[in-house]
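FAQ
Q: What does a multi-component entry look like?
A: The components come first, one per line:
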Amino acid sequence: MPSARNTTLCYRKLINHLTPGSWEQLVFADSFQEYRMQVPVFDPKKEYPQFAQLIHAVPQAEKLHHRVSAAVIGYLRQLNGIIPDITDNLGLKMLTFDNFHFEIINSASNDKTKHQVAINFISTPLWWIDTVGDYLLLSKPSSPERTFLLKLQPFISIHTCQHGNHNNLG
Amino acid sequence: MERKFFLRQGLTALGAAFVMPLAHSCQKEDTTSPTTTTTTDGSSTTTTGTCTVAPTETEGPFPTHSPSSYVRSDIRDDREGYELSATITIGKVSNSCAALANVIVDIWHCDAAGNYSEYGGTQMQSTNYTSVHFLRGRQVTDANGQVKFTSIFPGWYQGRATHIHVHIFDAAGNSLNITQIAFPEGTGSALLAVSGYSKGMSGYTYNASDSIFKDDTTGVQLATVSGSTSSGFTLAIQLNVA
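Then the predicted structure of the entire assembly, as tokens:
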């Protein structure tokens, strides 16, 4: 048995106006509204309608990522610490999170369809025990004997990884 | 600030251990009929030709509308300092500065050390939910045109006088005015009583030299501040919109 590694995974969830799901559309609508409210701080004369133009002209506008994230925190709490969408090979949502990183990818105050955001969910620590094909064999430090298989797939990455001592694999 | 910084090692961490087809019995899992799975992130690139199992859990929890985390009266979170109770009245210039109800008022200011809540830099980092937006708040004016916040007396940072940012919106969230609140100075002032917390006042930028407040000769942005370090401070100001 190879030595296990202490790992966290990142799931990058993209949301735009076409993303299905009521949770996703609440995040979309409220983050867009908050974006509209926060932009005047950085662009009082409405010179830069596109987010990309704005951060190019006003580097301080990078703070919009943080400022707009306030609109989504309530929705993140509603997930009860469970990373959405990503299931193990039994179809169970096994990944949990405490930490996240919110990003505005694109937006425009006058065009909702340009608004796109990403929520990066950082998993709580996992033991990466082995690799089976394109599946990671993982377990949680709280119950190291209970393993699960997670497929490597688009928008999933390894966020942190370090070798650790895992002496209780059963 | 409760932030956790993670070193990213990215995909290099996968290394040579990545492809290890050692468990033949498990390969059966890979030979089930491929079904295309699309996640709900709205991106076509997440559709894969290989199979992953669809969720098999009970549906839920069901989402409900959740207001911005700015919406609160006590904006202190984990920040420590002398308590400051702020009452801001919004008036309408075109109506003899009469109180304006149902407008949204955002405030934000720095902590005792002079730091704002924000992400540090642009590199990828993760943030815990708690106290992500300390010392930032949002309230809607009542029938008297007032909003109230509980906060701490702000600290100061290089180049600026002590201040509180204010952003006023109409009920639909359209920006009406972005301004700042200044603090009285001089003998007996709250500013000198707090004395920059542990920082002291050496190198402080007073209102007369401040880039924002120096042209406010009539004190439109100057609040009334009273109280003491033992009992806390109260701040009151009326700000008017067009």
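Q: Is there any commentary attached?
A: Sometimes. For this entry: DSSP finds four helices and seven strands in chain A.
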